[in-house]
Amino acid sequence: MSIFNYFKVKVLKFGGTSVGSVESLLNVKQIVTSQSQPVIVVVSALGGVTNQLIEMTRLAQSGSNNYESILEQVAQRHRDVIAGVVPQPMQGQCNAIVEQFIANLRSFYGTLALNRELPAVDQQRLADAIVCHGEVMSSAIVSCMIEGAVPHFAPNFIKTRECDGSHALEADLTRQLIANEWPTVEGIHVVQGFIADDADEHFKTNLGRGGSDYTAALIAAALHAECLEIWTDVDGFYDKDPRKHADAQLLPAMTYAQAQELCDAGAKVIYPPTLRPVAELSIPVWVKNTFNLTAPGTCIH
Ligand code: ADP
Ligand code: ASP
Ligand code: MG
Q: Are 41 and 258 in contact (CB under 8 A)?
């Protein structure tokens, strides 16, 4: 497959706040369905859900059943969002998918709460399997919300290997598997950010907190996408955090090096490993606001 087949693909990544409510998801739908070219949509978990999954793990590991009420809140939030954004004919299917994942979570937490003597490695693998559920549930909702969207499962092609106790990306294998996953791209495709799979033993892993940006960049680079768009909750990349500094200045354009410097200094708007794979191929990165569709955003190039 020649790289020219991918020339018109765009990769759009939507963060937690962008997929976190009925209103924001309806904006996501509008953004995605108004594209005139093939798109791959990468989604985070509903905002706050990853933190809740981790908190429930902590509670279960300490033997407390208090995770149950948080799990019910998480379940209810997903049900409410499905009722608000998924077209009626797809709601039953979407609810069934999400209820199955909630049942999986209940069983994982029950295992942790009852088996506190489990070896540390098993506890860690259970915790990693649990934390994947945020993106698995949000991506199911986004796929069901958009008619004709094709769902994909990121662990089939985002691969990591254990390295000094953490999960390091297997870059060459991942690039090859992404190219195999999309020999051509037509229409709208939806995939989870953040989550991955161990290349050797096939347990679930992830790319680190905030890692959905990185998933999107890996897909954009492997497919030589036309551009990567990071849709978030601010108008673009600022010289400092606009939520903390009233005088922060929006930067309409930046070089990869300028953006990387701010990311390395803690600018949370882009996860630091994200820029390298796209910068190597000169793929432009746009930072745009899901809540302000007319704002031009920031172009990193
Ligand atoms: P998402 O859930 O969309 O991935 P994040 O919370 O990870 O969103 O990143 C967006 C947040 O990054 C903004 O709400 C903002 O508070 C913060 N931020 C920190 N530094 C910057 C910066 N220099 N420019 C823009 N946003 C920044
Ligand atoms: N949901 C994950 C997190 O909260 C990944 C992401 O949002 O990028 O860290
Ligand atoms: Mg983020």
A: no
Query: CA 129, 133, 134, 138: dihedral to nearest 10 degrees?
Result: 150
CA atoms within 13 A on the CB side of 77: 18
Pocket test for ligand 2, best of 13, 24, 44 (most atoms within 8 A of CB): 44
* Distances, alpha carbon 24 to alpha carbons 75, 84, 89, 158, in Å: 19, 11, 21, 27
Any idea what the CATH number is for the domain that residue 268 is in? 3.40.1160.10
Tens digit of each residue's pLDDT (9 = 90 or more) over 142-168: 999 999 999 999 999 999 999 888 899
Helix (H, G, I), strand (E, B) or coil at 233: coil
Cα 187 to chain centroid distance, Å, stands at: 20
Domains held by the chain: number: 1
Distance CA 89, CA 18 (A): 24
Query: pTM of the full predicted structure?
Result: 0.97
Three-state DSSP class for residue 2: coil
175 torsion bin: left (phi>0), alpha (psi -120 to 50), beta (else): alpha
Tell me the torsion sign for CA atoms 189, 190, 192, 196.
Answer: negative
Please answer whether residues 47 and 55 qualify as being in contact, where contact means their C-beta atoms are separated by less than 8 angstroms.
Answer: no
Atom of ligand 2 nearest to the CA of 16: 7
What number of other Cβ atoms are within 10 A of residue 55's Cβ? 13
Residue 41 pairs in a beta bridge with 12, 190
- Full domain range(s) for residue 121: 3-300
Q: Which atom from ligand 1 is nearest to the alpha carbon of 17? A: 2
Ligand 1 pocket (Cβ < 6 Å) reads: 15-18, 44, 210, 232-234, 237-238, 240-243, 262, 267-269
pLDDT digits (tens, 9 = 90+) for 267-300: 999 999 999 999 999 999 999 999 999 999 999 9
Instruction: Find, among 45, 63, 145, the residue nearest to 101 by Cα.
Output: 45
- Ligand 1 atom nearest the C-alpha of 243 is 16
